[in-house]
Specification:
With 482 residues, the chain is α/β, with parallel strands linked by helices. 29% of the residues lie in helices and 23% in strands. The protein contains 12 helices and 21 strands. Helix 3 (137-150) runs parallel beside helix 4, helix 4 (169-182) crosses helix 7 and helix 7 (220-236) packs parallel to helix 8 (250-261). It is globular and about 75 Å long. Residues 309-313 have low confidence and may be disordered. Bound molecules: dihydropyrimidine-2,4(1H,3H)-dione and zinc ion (2 copies). Residues 189, 245-246 line the site of one zinc ion.
């Protein structure tokens, strides 16, 4: 395996931005040292990269993706092959995808299907969470087995989507008790599904069928209420670690902040769409255009959400950026769940509730959150912490992943802060979808070079990786608990 020296760059970690050289030997980072430290070993290197003026960061870790998810009468349009390649283009070197067990199905069958879909297909390393869509005695037993033997130590439950993935409070409590026994993490889609279903039926009966009603029928108090209920249930279940996924609302964030203030193992993630996009500019576009941004939780109103009591005069987005700074939000993921406009989003023409829920974004998370650094919302350290290091620690992959340190996997991204990235279907766009949620966005900064376990995947604006390079990562328990 080649030896690579990356010299003269600024290495970023959660604890600082330090001028350091990085020596890669085979699949691992062999050493990190002061500039010039490795001059004598340059001769023995297969490649020396001068990263002067550039950042050297750990490969991104996206802990929430849905490749080929069956949903809304169709399948998410990225396979593990196309989606993991797009991830590499975005400086992501590890994903955790959501394996699915539906009501009435066997957990092991669902997991086996996910291994079959991913095995030999991925450009980057991958792991799984397990969705438990049917909590019963058997699936509870299976949760323990997966945690102890399969490297799957986190389970996603849904308080939304009655009849599809939904669990009632009793089922949630039982799954939480089981997770508490075996040390696993519960991930929660926190929205009050039964109440949302009533609002959806009422909107459709009124003839309010446009995409924007997707957001109006999922008001933020129903996210906040479900978040609160999940926190209470996790407490009653023996303080099981709880991780709220795709948080979009300031009032929901307040529930997490309050629980964390009380020292609870309650965590949350948000996604770039909630930090940057608003109902007015996306879902609210005329005609059916807004369907491109139908996802759940929904993108929210800029500032005039009648249900939201903002903090210090900010809307939801201001709250979320503040939450990221304060570690009320520990992680940024994407909830990557792409659907094409043609034939997929179009399933919901004339009925917003039939639009498949999801936005594709696995390629753009590192770019979009870096833009938060440029905008003064986050520090460089916090960018790396929320997109690389904490995701790895939260889900039991540290220090193999998420950090540039001797002994860690050589998942390394060289980032050029002096370049720009234009996102769009005819610009930078490698996900398998016929549109981009970020069409026309110009981002400061650019993915320059991407290494996965010492192998270059992106180099000189070319993808030189290969499917099958990515390995399944058996995860341990969370390393982020208080
Ligand atoms: N939200 C989405 O937008 N898509 C898939 C599932 C989910 O919870
Ligand atoms: Zn969800
Ligand atoms: Zn999801």
């Amino acid at each position: 395996m080649p030896k690579v020296l990356i010299k003269n760059g600024l290495v970023i970690s959660p604890t600082g931005v330090i001028a350091n050289d990085v020596l890669i030997d085979g699949e691992k980072i062999a050493a990190v040292g002061a500039p010039g430290w490795f001059t004598s070993s340059e001769q023995g290197c297969d490649r020396v990269i001068d990263a002067a003026g550039k950042y050297v960061i750990p490969g991104g870790v996206d802990v929430h993706t849905h490749m080929e998810l069956p949903f809304g009468g169709t399948f998410a349009s990225d396979t593990f092959e196309t989606g993991s390649r797009a991830a590499a283009w975005g400086g992501v070197t590890t994903i955790i995808d959501m394996a699915v067990q539906r009501y009435g199905e066997n957990v092991f069958d669902g997991l086996a299907e996910w291994h079959r879909k991913a095995s030999g297909e991925c450009a980057i390393d991958y792991a799984f969470h397990q969705i438990i869509g049917g909590v019963d005695d058997q699936s509870l037993k299976d949760m323990k087995y997966l945690t102890e033997h399969e490297g799957i130590s986190s389970f996603k439950l849904f308080m939304a989507y009655p009849g599809v993935f939904y669990s009632d409070d009793g089922q949630i409590l039982k799954a939480m008790q089981t997770a508490a026994e075996c040390g696993a993490m519960i991930m929660m889609h926190a929205e009050n599904g039964p109440a949302i279903d009533v609002l959806v039926q009422q909107a459709l009966a009124r003839g309010d069928t446009d995409p924007r009603y997707h957001s109006y029928t999922r008001p933020s108090p129903l996210e906040a209420e479900a978040t609160h209920r999940a926190i209470v249930l996790s407490h009653v279940a023996g303080n099981v670690p709880l991780y709220i996924v795709h948080m979009s609302a300031g009032d929901a964030l307040n529930e997490v902040a309050a629980a964390r203030h009380h020292g609870r193992n309650v965590f949350a993630e948000t996604c770039p769409q909630y930090l940057w996009l608003t109902l007015e500019e996306t879902l609210g576009q005329p005609g059916f255009e807004g369907s491109k941004w139908v996802c759940s939780t929904p993108v929210r109103s800029r500032d005039n959400d009648p249900h939201h009591i903002g903090q210090m005069g900010h809307g939801h987005q201001g709250d979320l950026w503040k939450g990221l700074r304060m570690n009320e939000l520990a992680v940024v993921s994407t909830d990557h769940c792409p659907f094409c406009f043609k034939d997929q989003k179009e399933l919901g023409l004339g009925n917003f509730s039939a639009i498949p829920n999801g936005i594709g974004g696995v390629e753009h998370r590192m770019e979009l959150i870096y833009q938060g650094v440029v905008a003064g919302e986050l520090s460089l350290e916090r960018w790396v912490e929320t997109c690389c290091t904490t995701p790895a620690r939260m889900f039991g992959m540290y220090p193999q992943k998420g950090i540039i340190a001797p002994g860690s996997d050589a998942d390394v991204v060289i980032w050029d802060p002096n370049n720009k990235t234009k996102i769009g279907i005819n610009d930078k766009h490698h996900m398998n979808m016929d549109h981009s949620a970020w069409e026309g966005w110009i981002i400061d900064g650019k993915v320059d070079t991407v290494f996965s376990r010492g192998v270059a995947l992106i180099d000189n604006d070319q993808y030189i990786g290969r499917k099958g390079h990515g390995k399944y990562i058996k995860r341990g328990l969370s390393q982020y608990l208080v």
